[in-house]
Amino acid sequence: QVQLVESGGGLVQTGGSLRLSCAASGTGFSFYTMGWYRQAPGKQRELVATIAADGVRHYADSVKGRFSMSTDKSRNTLYLQMNTLRPEDTAVYYCHARAFRGYAENYWGQGTQVTVSP
Asked: Exposure string (b/e) for 76-87, b if CB count within 10 Å is 16 or more?
């Protein structure tokens, strides 16, 4: 099984920054994509950003120019740098991976809370 553990959430004021981390563990897996989703209270979970195995990145329109992803493959960690945060960014952020070992599956972390105050 692939396990994903998020960290780095917290409370910041409008215009502030946070960096989220997602540490992945598991052996014998090939990763198709990894990324971040978020879910605000009373709203559907939405895509924030994804990165494919070849490094191609995709960002939601709402975060383009403000958020960026990076990886540290030696530590099996995915990062999400969030700048110029807005109250509408407030949500639980979930790390996601689609990985293959015999068959492809989707994996989710437990989530980390990001709160942006006005």
From this structure: ebbbbebeebee
Backbone angles phi, psi at 93, to 5 degrees: -100, 130
For 99, half-sphere exposure in the C-beta direction (CA atoms, 13 angstrom radius) is 20
Find out whether 60 and 1 touch, Cβ atoms under 8 Å. Answer: no
Q: What is the pLDDT of residues 56-106, one digit of tens each?
A: 999 999 999 999 999 998 888 999 999 999 999 999 999 999 999 999 999
Phi and psi at residue 26, in whole multiples of 5°?
145, 150
- For residue 6, count other CB atoms closer than 10 A to its CB: 22
The pLDDT assigned to 31 comes to 86
Q: Which residue has the tokens 């099996």?
A: 76
Q: How many residues does the chain have?
A: 118
Rounded to whole angstroms, how far apart are CA atoms 83 and 47?
Answer: 17
| Beta carbons within 8 Å of 108's beta carbon, 6+ residues apart | 4, 94, 95, 96
**Residue owning tokens 């689609």:** 98
